[in-house]
Write a structure and sequence with these properties.
Elements lengths: L1 E5 L3 H10 L6 E6 L3 E3 L4 H5 L5 H4 E3 H4 L6 E5 L2 E5 L4 E4 L2 E4 L2 E4 L3 E3 L5 H6 L6 H18 L5 H7 L1 E5 L3 H16 L1 H4 L9 E5 L11 H13 L2 E4 L4 E4 L3 E4 L4 E3 L2 E4 L3 E3 L10 E2 L3 E3 L12 E3 L4 E2 L13 H19 L16 E6 L2 E6 L4 E4 H15 L3 H17 L17
Parallel strand pairs: 1-2, 1-9, 2-5, 9-21, 11-12, 11-17, 12-13, 20-22
Antiparallel strand pairs: 3-4, 6-7, 7-8, 10-18, 14-15, 15-16, 19-20, 23-24, 24-25
The chain binds flavin-adenine dinucleotide.
C-alpha cells in the first residue's frame, strides 16, 4: 500500500511514526519544511525565551532507522484524485492512499491591510520574525524623533484572546517587567502599553468560566489592558482602529485572532466547511472518496459528542493520526471489517499567562486548577510532549535558568534573516 502523507505536523508525524516498519505499507511523507514544529511554544521563541531549534525537530532524524518511510521537502500543489496522484513542486507522485494533514494557517478574514502590516505566529519562521521585530522596535524607540513615534514603539496590541493571544501578551508583559528595563535603561517602561483585544466577552472563551476569569485577572495583574467585546477593524502599520471607534498608535500588532485550514487544490468545494476544513466521516475519510483521508486541524468531523467538529488541538491531531494508522494496518492485513471510528477523549485543556500563573481544566473528574500548581502542570506536560531528548533537556535548563535569573539570553538581532519593518 503506497501511502502519501501531506504535512508533518502533529497528525502527519504521528501517523507516519505509527506506520513505521509496518510490513506491506510504503510511506511517502511530504512537508514544505524539513522540520516538525511544536506550535504551543512558538510564543516563547517570539519573546526570546527559547531558541527556534528547541521547538523545531528535523524530520529526517525521526526516520533514520526506518526503511518504509521516505521524506521529501516540497509543497503540495494539487490533488488529481481521478488519477490517484498529487502534483508537487518537485514532480508528481502516485498513491493508493492519500492523507491530507496540512493543518491550518492564520485567518485575517480577508483584511489585506492587516495581513500586510501585522505579525502572525503560525510557524517557527513567523515566531522568529516577531522576535526580531520586538527587539528592533526597541532599538528604534531609542532614536525616536517624536513623542508620537516613541509611544507607537512602546505600545503592543495583541489581537485574539484565545490561548495564543493570552500567552503572548502575558510573556510580553513579563519582558517589560523583568528584562526590557535592564536592556534599555534610557527608555521609560512605565509608558509601555500592552493591550489584548478580544471580540467576545471573555479571554480563553473555549475554557471554563473560572479559567476565563482567572486568565483575565492574571493579565490585568501583569499590567495588560484587556479589551473584550472589541474588534480590530483596521491597521495601516501605525494606526489601529477598533470597533469602539477608538484609535491607537502602535508599530506592533500581533494577530492571533483565528485560523483557517490549508485546503489543497483538487478537493471538491462542497466538502469545505466553516474555517476552511474538509468534511470527513468517523474514519477520517474525506466524504465521497474511497482512498483520501484528512486528519488534524484540517479535518471536520461531526460526532454526537462534537456535533460542530473537534477543537483544533494537538491532542486531537495526534489521536486521529494514531487511529488512522490502526485502520490502515487493518486494511493492509485484510481486516477491513475491524476499522475503528474516531472518538476524542478530552484529557483537559490548559494555558499559561506567566511565571507561576496558568489555568488548567480537567473534565474527568471535573476540576479547575489555577496559579502555581497549574503552571507546574503546564510546564511538565509541554516538556513531555516536545520531540527529542535534547530539546526536552535544553528547554528544561532554559526554564530553570529563567526561573532563577528572571532573564533569557536569546535577544539577538540577526539582521540577515529578518526583513526590517514592513
Ligand atoms: C501559537 C499556537 C499555540 C498552540 N497551542 C496549543 C496548545 O497549547 N495545545 C494544543 O493542543 N494545541 C495548540 N495549538 C494548536 C495545535 O498546534 C494544532 O492543533 C496542531 O498543530 C494541529 O496539527 P496538524 O498536524 O493538523 O497541523 P500542523 O501541526 O499545523 O501541521 C501541518 C503541516 O503541514 C505542512 N503543510 C501545510 N501545507 C502544506 C503544503 N501545501 N505542502 C506541504 N506541506 C504543507 C506544514 O508545514 C506543517 O508542518 C497551538 C497552535 C498555535 C499556532
Amino acid at each position: 500500500m503506497r501511502v502519501i502523507i501531506i504535512g508533518c505536523g502533529f497528525a502527519g508525524l504521528r501517523l507516519a511514526r505509527s506506520l513505521a516498519k509496518q510490513e506491506g505499507i510504503d510511506v511517502l511523507l511530504i512537508d514544505k519544511n524539513n522540520y516538525h514544529q511544536f506550535q504551543p511554544l512558538f510564543y516563547q521563541v517570539a519573546t526570546a525565551g527559547l531558541d527556534a531549534s528547541n521547538i523545531s525537530f528535523p524530520v529526517r532524524k525521526v526516520f533514520q532507522k526506518v526503511n518504509n518511510v521516505r521524506f521529501r521537502v516540497t509543497s503540495l500543489q494539487q490533488i488529481i484524485s481521478a488519477e490517484n496522484k498529487i502534483i508537487t513542486d518537485i514532480g508528481d507522485f502516485s498513491y493508493d492512499v492519500l492523507v491530507i494533514a496540512t493543518g491550518a494557517t492564520t485567518n485575517f478574514f480577508g483584511n489585506e491591510k492587516i495581513q500586510q502590516s501585522s505579525f502572525p505566529m503560525k510557524s517557527t519562521a513567523e515566531a522568529l520574525a516577531l522576535r526580531h521585530h520586538i527587539i528592533e522596535n526597541f532599538e528604534r524607540a531609542l532614536i525616536a524623533k517624536t513623542d508620537e513615534e516613541l509611544q507607537a514603539r512602546m505600545t503592543v496590541v495583541v489581537v485574539g484572546g484565545g490561548p495564543t493571544g493570552v500567552e503572548l501578551s502575558g510573556a510580553i508583559a513579563e519582558m517589560r517587567k523583568y528584562i526590557l528595563p535592564k536592556d534599555y535603561p534610557e527608555l521609560d517602561f512605565s509608558k509601555m502599553k500592552i493591550l489584548l483585544v478580544e471580540g467576545s466577552s471573555e479571554t480563553l472563551g473555549a475554557m471554563s468560566e473560572k479559567s476565563s476569569e482567572q486568565s483575565c485577572k492574571y493579565l490585568t495583574a501583569l499590567g495588560v489592558t484587556v479589551k473584550t467585546k472589541t474588534v480590530v477593524k483596521d491597521y495601516d502599520g501605525t494606526t489601529v482602529t477598533l470597533s469602539t471607534g477608538e484609535t491607537l498608535q502602535t508599530k506592533t500588532l500581533l494577530w492571533a485572532a483565528g485560523v483557517k485550514g490549508n485546503v489543497p487544490e483538487g478537493i471538491d468545494a462542497s466538502l469545505i466547511v466553516k474555517g476552511n476544513r474538509i468534511k470527513v466521516d468517523r474514519y477520517n475519510k474525506v466524504i465521497g472518496t474511497e482512498n483520501i483521508y484528512a486528519i488534524g486541524d484540517i479535518a471536520y468531523m461531526e460526532t454526537p459528542k462534537y456535533p460542530h467538529g473537534h477543537p483544533q488541538l494537538a491532542n486531537v491531531a495526534i489521536n486521529q493520526g494514531k487511529n488512522l494508522a490502526v485502520n490502515l494496518k487493518h486494511q493492509v492485513n485484510g481486516n477491513k471489517h475491524l476499522q475503528n471510528e474516531f472518538e476524542y477523549h478530552d484529557k483537559g485543556t490548559m494555558a499559561t499567562v506567566g511565571r507561576n500563573l496558568a489555568v488548567v481544566d480537567i473534565p474527568k473528574p471535573k476540576l479547575h486548577l489555577g496559579g502555581w500548581i497549574a503552571w507546574v502542570i503546564w510546564m511538565s506536560v509541554h516538556i513531555v510532549l516536545i520531540l527529542g531528548v535534547k530539546n526536552r533537556l535544553q528547554i528544561f535548563i532554559n526554564w530553570l535558568y529563567k526561573y532563577f535569573t528572571y532573564d533569557q539570553n536569546l535577544r539577538l538581532l540577526i539582521r540577515g534573516s529578518y526583513q526590517p519593518e514592513k
